[in-house]
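Quick start: read one record
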Amino acid sequence: MKIIFFTHSTFVLKIHDKYLLIDPFFSGNPVFDNKNFLKCIDDLLIRVDYILLTHAHYDHVCDVELFSQKFHGVLVISNYEISNYFEKKGIKTYGMNYGSFISFPFGKLKYVWANHSSVFNDGTYGGNAGGFLLHTNEGNLYISGDTSLMSEMNLIPIFGKLKLSVLPIGGRYTMDIEEAILASDFLKCKKILGVHYNTFEEIRINKDEAKKKFYEKGKELILLEMGESICI
């Protein structure tokens, strides 16, 4: 399993020959200017088969239509309300809710609780915010989405040992560093990919200090630069 990080909470999972794009946020992202976000997409994204959306906030869904036009046949996977929203725009979707694992060609996917809000920029209700628990023959991955620390995280490892957890660490709107460390305890997972930090001033962190705090607890915090990738 390969992870290619872009910015904020946006990254790609490559599982066998399938490419999963998570929470696309390029246009309107302050990391880019109006000219270079399309170049970044062209340079680093050769293909997208699926788009996974954790909730309806602009910084997680704003480029769904862009990618559905660029990569024909892409399937958007999210909760029922978000899926309906994009289906009305002519985009192929697969809606789910908190419940069972669903089998896809890349593995089994379960939509899980996140403690957050969810609404589109136009005011349309985006259903309950969530995350994804992904089980594959290459290992298991937890994508928390935007969330605070919550006791429900204790349930995640019951379904299977995690190779990696993707957690927000910027604070204010989500968990901060200290809460993400506690979350990793709940998840019984020592390898964390940090997301949702430094995109905006109000979620700025000290990266070296954050890594040190995880290390002191016997855990590894992975912070990737734009376009950088890891294999797990």
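The chain is about 20% helix and 30% strand.
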